Amino acid sequence: MKSSADATRPIHWLLPSLTSWLWFVLVLTLLAQPWRTTMLASDGDASMHWRCGEWMLQHRQLLRADPFSHTRLGAPAVPKEWLAQITLAAAGRLAGLAGLAAVGALLIATAFALVHRQLIREGNDALVATLVTLLAAWASSAHWLARPHAFSFVLAALWCANVRRLDRDEPRATLALAGITALWVNLHGAYLAGFLLLGAYWLGAWIERDRRKLRRFTIAGIVCGGASMLNPSGVMLHVHNLGFLRSGYFRDWLAEYASIRFDSPDALGFALWLALMFLTLALGRPRLRAGEKLVLFSWTYFALFAARNIPLLAIFSAPILAPALSQAARARWPRSEQGWPALLERLHNISTAGRGGFVLAGIAAAVIVFVPRPTEFPAKEWPVDAVAFIQAHPEDFAGNMFNQYMWGGYLLQYLPEHKTFVDGRSDFFGEELVKEFTATAGLHTNWPAALDKYHVAWTLMPRDHRLNAALALVPAWQRAFSNETAVIYRRSL
Amino acid sequence: MKLRRWLVPSLGVAIWLAIFLGQSLSDWRQVLISADGDACLHRRIGEWMIEHRAVLRTEQFSHTRFGAPVIAKEWLSEIAYAAAERALGWNGAVLIAALLIATTLWLLHRWLLAEGCELLLATGLVLLAALASSHHWLARPHLVTPLFALLFAWQLRVFDRAHEPRPARLFLILVPAMWLWSNLHGAFFTGFVLIGVYAAGNLTRPGKAMPFAALGVACLLVSFLNPNGWRLHTHIVEFLREPVIAKFANEFRSPNFHSGAMRGFLLQLLVLGAVLGAARSRWRGVDVILVLVWGYFALQAVRNIPIFAIIVTPMLAEHWSRYFREARETGWLGAYRRVSGNLTGLDRAAGGGALVAVAIVAVIFAQARGAIATDVLPERFPVAAVQWLRAHPDSVRGEMFNDYAWGGYLMLALAERRVFVDGRNDFYGPALIEEFNKADDAAPGWDEVLRKYDVGWTILPVAHRLNALLALEAGWKRVYADDVVAIYSR
Q1: Which chain A residue has the Cα nearest residue B462?
Q2: Is residue A84 part of a domain?
């Protein structure tokens, strides 16, 4: 291998590695349209997290009681993503929506750059590592959103690399895992995925009767379990998250917990990832360790079960698949000084020897700071004009609101003077309230009940929503605003 | 020995008997005809064709598309079901469905044994395929498709692997089968996909690829021998290319892995993953393509899962067999081999043909004597409401707006009235389906749809959202309600 020798040459301190290039291309792609808007406006949660973070920055305290909804005003809240929310809010303060987009872009690009770096460090072929990483990124792209879960992508990549270090008998990885845990529990609820991954390798060591590894994974689990208590809610965070995951109602009701629809174009990357897994196992026939097999099986199941697990499957399984593909690539194109193999050899050297990532990081920073990136919610999908109308006529909107679930986060941020009925924090609102919301929005037999119970004075729903059709037939309700996106109905006094 | 062979069932026949008797005698028979309204729909169409001694070519049953040209793509199945139902009532549909399902699984078992799979493994894998397919066990024409898919997949695989392939046998079996299939069910395209995969997988072997290509051409030509000729093919292609219609039907949706109905499919995927991880045996190119193609189709639409289950099962058998053959002899593996070996000896001496004959005759006899009563489930269909409408024909006037899933039932049980829509979404087309959706979803503009089609009354599930609007709308009143249904009349 030439790489280690090459790395000492001065030129390599200026030459970015392949990993850096991949990171750079992903950052620029995500900062460009349509991704910039897609990351923010696919649902209302980016705004919701921004608003929560902003509240915490303003009040210099964690959000422990709800200040945003009229249905659960003052109810205790578990601040499970407080650090991510504060980070997003700080970026929002600096650059508005573009700031949130920049955080999302940097996190997603960094996550897949880390995957690429791990594949290279584990000795995979550079071309294979790059293609596998790009496909992993594509498979995950349906969930590229500027929300706290983007932190989980980065931490999952770091966690996976360190669990595999532990699997290779590098005990110092335990400390790294503990540090990641302490960070992860404060950034996003998907830290539980890390424990599942660790559990799969632990079980693998148990199946293989490798006592030394078993002890190492056990110690890591205990240390990380202890580190997971380092959050503002302590053990209650775990109780809250596990309680939410056990709710069959929410698993079926929330879009991101649903199985991905393979008839949607968004699923193509995931379908190709599954095909890659099958092809690698059927044709490459790698000799996998028990833990690796368990990771593939369990995370394929999780990814089929809930679309939100697809990025984690891609991140966790990439290092398991890449060695077999690298072996196949090297068998097909043995190293030589000429032609295609020589190009691959050079690519490999660049990817391992380059130390000039800071050059690209500098360019990316300059792009983020100096290139104007107008970012806003599309008025065709979001109630932008309706909110302007409400703000222009404050005297007409005195009572409580009933709002579309997905618009809740947007309304928190852009109509802060009014309290919402519901927003994306379904775990906070709980099953009972979400069922009340659904009964009204779905025109169930008792649909007016929630409107009366919560003294709703006006509704803000999408134009074609069935609730508008019902309110149009009730004399006590009058249409106050309507455009191609939203309709407001107001109850007569 | 001969008598024993007739009387003692082999494991394959035991599977056949269990499935056939289980479906014919247990409550499963109600589910076979009540899972949606399509069993009723096909019965009604078949009945019409028997009555009129003609293939259905113009619409008779709906007011929204009355008189429009119809492509009767499943005419032969519909006549077969209707004829059985004339003789035995709903038991006739159950009889056909149970025969088709049991025979498909029995043939799959035979196929695995013919390829040298151990008896216990073959039985386990067939039961797994049954579990994966069971969500789509409904007394409808589509049950012929897994049977024909099995026949095609089996014969193509035998030809592909034969050292001395016999093209004449391949043509003699599959060309007539394709003719029958294209008159029985619209999914005969499955056969072309299978032939295409085998042709593509043998591109480097012209000696094999050419017969497959010729078979494809012959099957295509023979598939034109149906009442609609080539128009049947263009109709199906247009239907599959139309996302609005295809997504509207539940069976064309991607699997929801939260549902218990998908557990069998998940388990089969798990067993596939396990054999990939454990056996590490070499996969043939054609098999790899088949898994990729049918795996993708199954993930796209749940109705493809039974075909995937059938196609992947022989591959699972092949690789698990190799794994068990090459695996180190351990305690449990040794015990498994001993038990399997003993059972194989017994199974070879067994048959059970007499039991099959007795089972069929006994079931038909019991059905004909009325000892087994089968009817649609009243909690799933507006049975009492239909009786009330019959008793009070003047209580509703004008055209009907009905629940989509009830369309077939209403066509059959309330034949004197025409439905708004039923399960034939390919016939209704995207424009009408979207209009139906707007009204059914209670979206703004719902009333314009009802006015456009002169709807005078609605028959919908009692908690349906449109009922909430009709309760508020002046000029509409509820004339009937029970635990299942509410009828509103203008």
Answers
A1: A445
A2: yes
Query: Could you tell me the sign of the dihedral formed by the alpha carbons of A463, A421, A188, A303, in that order?
Result: negative
Contact B258 A262 (CB under 8 A): no
Q: Is residue B362 part of a domain?
A: no
Q: Based on the fold, state whether residues A167 and A304 are members of the same structural domain.
A: yes
The verdict on residue B453 lying in a domain is: yes
What is the rounded distance in angstroms from the CA atom of residue A207 to the CA atom of residue A400?
58
pLDDT tens string B288-323: 999 999 999 999 999 999 999 999 999 999 999 999
Do A331 and A416 share a domain, yes or no?
Answer: no
Name the residue of chain B whose CA is nearest to A263's CA: B300
- Asked if residue B378 is part of any domain, the answer here is no
Distances in Å between the Cα of A433 and the Cα atoms of A78, A251, A253, A429 are 17, 16, 13, 6
Structure tokens at B42: 């096909």
Question: Hey, what long-range contacts does B288-294 have (CB within 8 A, 24 or more apart)?
Answer: B288/A278, B288/A279, B288/A282, B288/A283, B289/B197, B289/B200, B289/B201, B290/B153, B290/B194, B290/B197, B290/B315, B291/A278, B291/A282, B291/B315, B292/A275, B292/A278, B292/A279, B293/B193, B293/B197
- In the numeric block, the tokens 């009802």 are attached to B450
Quick one: B160 and B275 in the same domain? yes
Choose between B6 and A240: higher pLDDT: A240
Asked if omega into A372 is within 30° of 0 (cis), the reply is no
Say if residue A245 is in the same domain as residue A388. no
Residue type for position B434 = E
Q: How close A475 comes to chain B (CA, Å)?
A: 10
Q: What is the pTM of this model?
A: 0.92
Cα torsion angle, A441, A445, A451, A457, sign = positive
Are B311 and B442 contained in the same domain?
A: no
pLDDT reported for residue A10: 64
Among A337, A370, A403, the domain-final residue is A370
What does the longest C-alpha to C-alpha distance in chain B come to? 79
Residue numbers of the domain that contains B392: 383-489
Rg (CA), chain A: 25
Q: Where in the sequence is the domain holding A268, given as residue range(s)?
A: 12-41+78-370
The number of helices, as runs of H, and strands, as runs of E, in chain A is 22, 4
Contact B111, B150 (CB under 8 A): yes
Candidates A274, A287, A470; nearest CB to B469: A470
Percent residues over pLDDT 70 in chain B: 99
Q: Provide the ipTM.
A: 0.92
Are B251 and B315 within one domain? yes
**pLDDT, mean of residues B275-291:** 92
Nearest to B444 among A297, A468, A474 (CB): A468
Residue A67 lies in a domain: no
- pLDDT tens, residue by residue, B350-397: 888 899 999 999 999 998 888 888 889 999 999 999 999 999 999 999
Q: Domain count of chain A?
A: 2
CB neighbour class for B53 (10 Å; exposed up to 12, middle 13-18, buried from 19):
exposed
Q: Same structural domain for residues B320 and B452? A: no
**Is residue A46 a contact partner of residue A145, using CB atoms and an 8 Å limit?**
yes
Residues B416 and B319 in one domain: no
- Residue B88, both tokens: 């035995």
How many structural domains compose chain B?
2
User: Is the same domain home to A216 and A269?
Assistant: yes
Q: Are residues A350 and A388 in the same domain?
A: no
Mean pLDDT of chain B: 93
Residues A296 and A437 in one domain: no
Would A288 be classed as within a structural domain? yes
Give A284's DSSP letter.
I
Residues B387 and B347 in one domain: no
Interface residues of chain B, partner chain A, Cβ below 8 Å: 243, 246-247, 252-258, 266, 269-270, 273-274, 276-277, 280-283, 288, 291-292, 295-296, 299-301, 441-446, 462-463, 465, 467-469, 472-473
A123: in domain: yes
pLDDT per position as a tens digit, B422-437 = 999 889 999 999 999 9
